[in-house]
């Protein structure tokens, strides 16, 4: 099997997940190409049996590059097996996972794919107080920081909420 993994990342979290998915698939015998969606144009997906497209979520949105890839290749992807994944803060909390699946996976699939994806992965994110961004990000992070502090979590340190065993199992199932 030949697989393409296209990812969009802002802070590296989705890139690390995409790399791990690629490693697992290679170990399972697949030929894998890993591509950052940033600036990606006119990509021929017809060479692949499986196309995995993933993104980090920031303030409720996929990366522009990953969404553009899905839209630009909508017709060609209808002839391929497609899997989607996202990494987001909502996946860190059990009571928010269903809403995140609906908004970040099912909705994106309905709007940008002709066929149902063969798999949809919802993975946790990373809290990193060192990341400095615009006003909306700062406001959002202030809220997240308060919630983490209520849970007794030291918000001065980076916390990785990704479940690597879950990610590897998802990749293996592909």
From TrEMBL:
Highest rank taxon of the organism: Archaea
Example of a GO biological process term: heme biosynthetic process
GO molecular function annotation: FMN binding; menaquinone-dependent protoporphyrinogen oxidase activity
Cross-referenced Pfam families: Flavodoxin_5
Flavodoxin-like domain location: 3-174
Stored PANTHER family: PROTOPORPHYRINOGEN IX DEHYDROGENASE [MENAQUINONE] (PTHR38030), PROTOPORPHYRINOGEN IX DEHYDROGENASE [QUINONE] (PTHR38030:SF2)
Protein name: Flavodoxin/nitric oxide synthase
